[in-house]
Design brief:
Length: 150
């Protein structure tokens, strides 16, 4: 009998710990895949049972309105990506001009500004964390730049 790559008898399955362990892992893997498949199909699937979902009218409205909004956002992002890739793949373009892309791709500048603003908090946190690693001269230089802005 060939089981999990082992050429062994049925009795050996019970006796050899490495075979039992492989069977155990295989069983856990199959169960996990089963649960994952059902969870993807139905988010209310928990531990082998489908749990009832409490719904409110606002949740129903959100579910009905979000797919259309998501589809429009996906279409917009696909269009922006296609425009950028068209520009980048153009053999006549010798030097990539970001400003040209932002100016001549409808909606790209607005998307880029929104992205940068949403990323602002992350940048601020990274700066705060790195301040302790800077030398006194570097900190003074940053301090001077801040004073110049005021």
């Amino acid at each position: 009998m060939a089981l999990l790559g082992y050429d062994t008898s049925a009795e050996d399955v019970l006796l050899k710990p490495e075979i039992r362990q492989d069977l155990h892992y295989l069983t856990r893997f199959i169960i996990a895949k089963h649960h994952l498949a059902h969870t993807k199909k139905n988010p209310n699937y928990v531990g082998g049972e489908i749990m009832p979902k409490k719904s409110t009218s606002t949740e129903v409205n959100e579910v009905q309105t979000n797919p259309a909004g998501d589809e429009k956002e996906i279409e917009k992002l696909n269009r922006l990506l296609a425009s950028v890739l068209d520009y980048l793949s153009d053999d006549e373009v010798e030097e990539i001009d970001i400003e040209y892309l932002l100016t001549n791709t409808e909606g790209l500048r607005e998307w880029w500004d929104q992205y940068r603003e949403s990323n602002r908090k992350k940048i601020e946190e990274e700066i705060k964390k790195s301040l302790g690693e800077l030398s006194l001269e570097e900190l003074e230089s940053i301090h001077d730049k801040i004073k110049e802005k005021e």
